Amino acid sequence: AAKAYKRGYPDLAVQALSQTITHLTTSGRFRQAADREKEIAQIYQHELNNIRNACESLERAGD
Fold it and tell me: What's the whole-number average pLDDT of the chain?
C-alpha cells in the first residue's frame, strides 16, 4: 500500500509503513523494520520536505 501512496499521498504512505513497522517489530524482524523506517525518512525528506522527521526516522532505524 505504501508504494501506491508514495507519490500522491505521502502522509498515507508513512501511515502504512508505520503499521508495517509495528507488525515487523512485534514478530522480531528488526532488520526489515529498519528498512521500512529508512523508507519513511526518504518520504519525509523528498516528498514532504520535512528534514526533522526524516532525521528522527533515521535515528529510529539505527536503534
Answer: 94
